[in-house]
Amino acid sequence: MIKQSFQPRFSGSVFERAGRRALAAGRRARDRLAETYLPDASAAPGQRYFQPLEIERYDGWESTFSELGENYIGHRFDILGSGWTNVHHGMSCPGVEGNRYEAAPALPDGRQAAHLTGRLNASNRRAALNIRALIDEDFTPIDWHLDFKSGYRWRESVWYRDIRYRGVPGADAKLPWELARMHHLAQLALAHGLAAAKRPGFRGGGDYAREFRNQALDFIAANPPRYGINWCCTMDVAIRAANLLVAHDLFGATGHAFDAAFENIFWRSMREHGRHIAANLERHGAMRNNHYLANIAGLLFVGAYLPAGGEADPWLAFAARELLAESEYQFLGDGANFESSTSYHRLSAEMMLYGTALLLAIPEARGIAPLPDQLSARLAAMAEFSIAITTPAGRIVQIGDNDSGRFLKLFPLFENEALTREAHLDHRHLVAAISALSDDPSLTSFTGADHPERELVSALARGKKLPPTVRAEITDHGTGEASELGEFLETWKTAAPANRQFARFALAEPFDAARIAFHSYAEFGLYILRAPEFYLAIRCGGENAGRPRGHAHNDQLSVELWIGGECLLADPGSYLYTPLPERRNAYRSVRAHFAPQIEGAEPASLDLGLFALGPPSGAECRYFGAAGFLGCHSAYGTPLWRAIAITAEAVEISDMAESPEHILLANETILANQPPYSPGYGIR
Questions:
Q1: Distance (Å, whole) CA 630 – CA 644
Q2: What sign has the CA pseudo-torsion 233, 235, 240, 241?
Q3: Among 565, 253, 559, which residue's Cα sits nearest to residue 393?
Q4: Which residue from 462, 435, 430 is spatially nearest to 360, judged by alpha carbons?
Q5: At what angle do helices 342-361 and 290-305 cross, to 10 degrees?
Q6: How far apart are CA 612 and CA 440, in angstroms?
Q7: What is the mean pLDDT of residues 235-241?
Q8: Long-range Cβ pairs for the range 26-33 (8 Å, 24+)
Q9: All residues at 6 or more sequence positions from 537 whose CB lies less than 8 Å from its CB, including other chains
């Protein structure tokens, strides 16, 4: 028998798009008449990949997972700046900057299943009620369709392509999407492992397993395939599938076996997730970004975990091939991601990392080709970029957007013992996880060889590692001639006062220039100078017109500066996307950044859409070395320069506009206009 290979559909010509619209209309009509759950049938159990975990490697995490477990069993979630919130039907929500929507009615009966009859589309009610009947009587349903900050709620009965989630003031679809990614379920599984190992402070292990089972069934019942907010973005469907599979596998690795009725529903849902991803890939011709990478990574997990044979095999083969292709397409030669965002670099690198670990574990009988030798070096370069952008406080420099996005969140870090704020800008887990596949000593020295994510990734990969590769040693990170910096500084002195600005930041103590470490990421557009006394990151370049610009900001020539462990200048982050367009533009505006600015003008237009940016600025690094930095761009129609001189006593920033008609804003005005710092999505 010849197996039919998986043939993905991508956007193409006008006629193809018209054909797809007609096809969608037919599918919409079909889904209104027929049940969208797959037919009831005994689903064969899926694969297992995690080896039994070495629970002693998680010593020191007991209090974190004990408290997290209590929160999740109590249906309390801290999502995108919400704070720990009990999410349930009929809840009253605080609102977002004055935008608040009234609560939907609470569920009417003790079993709390009546809402499925009244809210789901008619074709799916019978199947949903059958799933709901498997849930424990005392379980309180979670409202998976609610933005529990603004209170806005999307209807379960709307077909996924008809969902509208933009243009509603204050309403943010990212809240239900993020909750439905199910990151917390793997943490429940790890809490189960610690409880099973008789660590103090935990419930009985069965409580965590029951909660996982109930929440998974609750979601599947309340979210029939292709209906509601949680099916309209394929990226989120894919991430959810991977998290459900990993959590389910981790429960098995820590000694729990689920009942047959649950297993049947679970594996049927995983096949439904796989079909949805395969039919809704977020690729538009040759253009793709982190969404497509998430689609591929999620499909890889579904194809790998489902039993061999049938549609799982072509899904797996396609996803494995595409994941490796995207490792070259979406990551630059310097290791950074191509979307002009340090936070999206972490998200995309996680997809590559966990996907690679799974590929290492897949049995040879599944027919996956050997991994290329250069993959090890590419992953190591991704980790080294995260190391370079980490400031003295252990948080990364924020360049571009930050939506706090993750693929898997196994060991969440918090800024305090009360777990009241997650450390969204800490990338140590990523570096530790990559080191599990390579044993690169430069990576383990950054995180420590005993970081628990190393052990967990190694368990997923079944102890296999990528072949070691020899990377060329880079000894000179500089570019240009220091004399050009000196010549510019002499020219700067002759410029009219209105066309120049100057700022001086004294060092706490004199330092030796020989101790400066240089990190040049010219393809990404970031230059970093690090010494014991200071840390300086400069944004310049990386504006290839063929790359996505939806997550880029007007930040060319901006800087982040730390002296003596104190942050003096910082990129303020992103805060929000679609709920408040004015806030979105405020944070991606040049006004939010410590960069040379012309009053009343943006280097690139912000009027093309919330995820579009005007043409590149032409930013260019002219010198980068021990003496400092010199760069310019011409986005205002005239060259605008920034020079940074590193002396023994200070960091000195000199800006200049070449044209006398271009008046530079005063540095004091720039600093006064910056919005509040946002260390994660939804947080200020």
A1: 6
A2: positive
A3: 565
A4: 462
A5: 20
A6: 38
A7: 98
A8: 27/226, 28/159, 28/161, 28/162, 31/121, 31/123, 31/159, 31/226, 31/227, 32/121, 32/123, 32/159, 33/123
A9: 389, 391, 397, 526, 527, 528, 559, 560, 561
- Find tokens 């240089």 and name the residue: 518
Contact in structure between 572 and 608 (CB atoms under 8 Å): no
Q: Give the position of tokens 């076996």.
A: 257
Closest CA to 574 of 684, 670, 420, 673: 684
- Quick one: DSSP state of residue 309? S
CA 293 centroid distance within chain:
11
Gap between the Cα atoms of 69 and 75, Å rounded: 10
CB 252 within 8 A of CB 53: no
- Asked if pLDDT for residue 666 goes beyond 90, the answer is yes
The first and second tokens of residue 118, run together, are 């009244």
Helices and strands counted in the chain (H then E): 19, 12
Residue located via tokens 């979406």: 330
Distances (CA, A) of 203 to 69, 182, 196, 352, 639: 9, 21, 9, 35, 64
Q: What is the pTM of this model?
A: 0.95
- Using one digit for the tens of pLDDT, what is the confidence trace for 402-415? 999 999 999 999 99
Geometric angle at alpha carbon 530, from 567 and 424, rounded to 5°: 50
Residue 105: exposed, middle, or buried by beta-carbon count in 10 A (0-12, 13-18, 19+)? exposed
Task: Provide mean pLDDT across the span 422-449.
Answer: 92
pLDDT band for 55, please (50, 70, 90 cuts). confident
Give me the helices (H) in 504-605, please.
581-588
pLDDT category, 14, cuts 50, 70, 90?
Answer: low
Best CA proximity match to 631, nearest among 504, 536, 510, 516: 536
Output the six-digit token pair for 473.
């040693």
Q: How far apart (Å, rounded) are the C-alpha atoms in residues 434 and 384?
A: 10
Q: Distances from the Cα of 481 to the Cαs of 449, 556, 632, in angstroms? A: 40, 21, 15
Least confidently predicted of 28-42, 159-173, 274-288, 355-369:
28-42
